[in-house]
TrEMBL record:
Keyword flag Transferase: yes
Name assigned to this protein: Glycosyltransferase
Keyword RNA-binding: no
Top-level taxon: Bacteria
InterPro entries per UniProt: Glyco_trans_1, Glyco_trans_4-like_N
Domain Glycosyl transferase family as annotated: residue spans: 233-410
Occurrences of domain Glycosyltransferase subfamily 4-like N-terminal (ranges): 50-227
Keywords: Glycosyltransferase, Transferase
GO molecular function: glycosyltransferase activity
Length: 447
């Protein structure tokens, strides 16, 4: 496995020797982040590669900077992929082969998890150590964590990213895996050493819809506050060729019906700025022809055409990390029209760039967006309400700037990846201290 080492040339990957030695002095120990279905080294912004992948990678990098030796485990989906991707001196992605080496829908991956557990153990054996802490992400990985816990001493921390109990309320056909997922999510809540909820709304859902048992701590998601907010609005517009006076509305995210892009397009058709040459809607996100995201993108393009909005709507495709700050900064308003959103990284990224947010009043968006202070919240799927909220901000640019400034402050205070990593470190350290006490209290067996 060690033979295919691939170094990512990312900004985070370049550490000076000084920093490296500080990390060794400050060694906090080994930690495995498990994300079976969301590869932290993948390209973000298309099918099944969104917030979870970003979260695992950025949390991993930030924890490594704070002295943890972080290994992030995922399922290999392409024979061309490196087995190990080294992101920074103490942070790497390890791809385990479990099931076919190809993309499979998350709903079809459960059967390959026993093999994933086996491969994880084989990796530990080969490396000559066991991870005392395993932080699992999404329900598939929670099952892996619970199985590992039967096989070795470890503390399991879990982040759900999405709850079946909430998601299934808004779908007309339940997938075949639904009952298994619900049972695994309940077992995990009741047995994991700590559950990390990313917002008070998510904690409430867990308590009301999953189980009253289990230990939950709230640690929000984060964003890169150095990168996001690094460019001023007019500079960003110049870079993207957008006129100074344009009224720019932005969507960033995957093409998935749950994201509510249709609501946004229909709201734009209702906007009082519609028909004005200055109005623009940019719908950014990756898609692959023939895949489910490609089909959703085609559906949206058809609606745009039917509504006669071709002239004002653009589809710039998947945005890279380097491009995102300019798009957010160039916009007068960023819209997050999701039907359901466990957290919604896009909202805090826009806020970090000083852009106000109009979002659905659902899930974690109710925690990140403060209505009338950093943006506006409206009922999901209500295109008239979205149109009205967007118009209020577009019609009052000075107020829009003010909302954006306060949004930036809100993210700076509590939602940088550094602050998220500090809070997770405190959770991990408490659990490790418990393990130490438990091992001292264990009665010694006479030889
Ligand atoms: N994203 C990206 N490029 C794109 C579209 C999205 O990098 O073209 C990123 C976006 O910046 C955010 C993540 O994908 O960090 C989406 O996370 P979010 O929590 O908003 O939604 P999810 O995809 O998890 O449902």
């Amino acid at each position: 496995m060690k033979n295919q080492l691939h170094l990512l040339g990312s900004r985070q990957g370049t550490y000076s020797w000084g920093e490296k030695s500080i990390m060794l002095i400050n060694d906090k120990g080994r930690l495995a982040l498990i994300s079976v279905s969301g590869d932290p080294a993948a390209e973000i912004g298309q099918e099944e590669a969104g917030g979870q992948n970003v979260y695992v990678r950025q949390v991993g990098l930030a924890l490594a900077k704070q002295g943890w030796r972080v290994d992030m485990f995922t399922r290999r989906i392409d024979p061309e992929q490196a087995n190990i991707v080294q992101h920074a001196p103490n942070c790497r992605t390890i791809r385990l082969t479990a099931g076919p080496v190809q993309f499979i829908n998350r709903d079809d991956a459960f059967g390959y998890l026993p093999e994933f557990v086996k491969q994880f153990q084989a990796f530990q054996k080969q490396e000559g150590y066991q991870y005392p802490l395993v932080h699992t992400n999404y329900w598939l990985s929670s099952w892996v964590g619970m199985e590992l816990k039967k096989l070795q001493p470890l503390k399991q921390i879990h982040t759900y990213h999405s709850l079946g109990a909430v998601k299934y309320r808004s779908v007309s056909h339940l997938p075949a895996i639904a009952s298994t997922r619900l049972a695994v999510e309940k077992a995990c809540l009741e047995t994991a050493d700590r559950i990390v909820a990313t917002s008070p709304q998510e904690e409430e859902h867990m308590r009301n819809l999953v189980s009253g048992k289990g230990m939950i701590e709230i640690v929000p998601c984060g964003t890169d506050i150095q990168r996001m907010g690094s460019i001023a609005r007019q500079d960003a517009r110049q870079q993207l060729g957008i006129p100074r006076e344009a009224k720019v509305v932005l969507y960033v995210g995957r093409f998935d019906r749950r994201k509510g892009i249709e609501t946004l397009v229909r709201a734009i058709a209702k906007s009082r700025w519609q028909g004005n040459a200055d109005l623009r809607l940019m719908i950014a996100g990756g898609y692959r022809p023939g895949q489910s995201d490609g089909m959703e993108c085609d559906r949206i393009k058809t609606i745009v055409q039917e509504l006669g909005l071709n002239e004002i709507v653009t589809f710039p495709g998947r945005l890279t990390d380097a491009e995102l700050p300019s798009y957010y900064a160039a916009a007068n308003v960023c819209v997050v029209p999701s039907h359901y959103e466990p957290f919604g990284l896009v909202a805090i990224e826009a806020m970090a760039c000083g852009t106000p947010v109009v979002a659905s009043k659902v899930g974690g968006l109710q925690f990140t967006v403060v209505p009338e202070v950093t943006g506006l919240l409206v009922p999901p799927q209500d295109e008239a309400a979205f149109a009205e909220a967007i118009d209020r901000i577009l019609s009052n640019p000075a107020w829009g700037e003010q909302l954006g400034e306060i949004g930036r402050q809100r993210v700076e205070i509590a939602m940088s990846w550094e602050s998220v990593a500090y809070r997770l470190t405190s959770v991990y350290s408490k659990l490790l201290a418990q393990s130490a006490v438990q091992s001292v209290q264990k009665p010694q067996v006479a030889a």
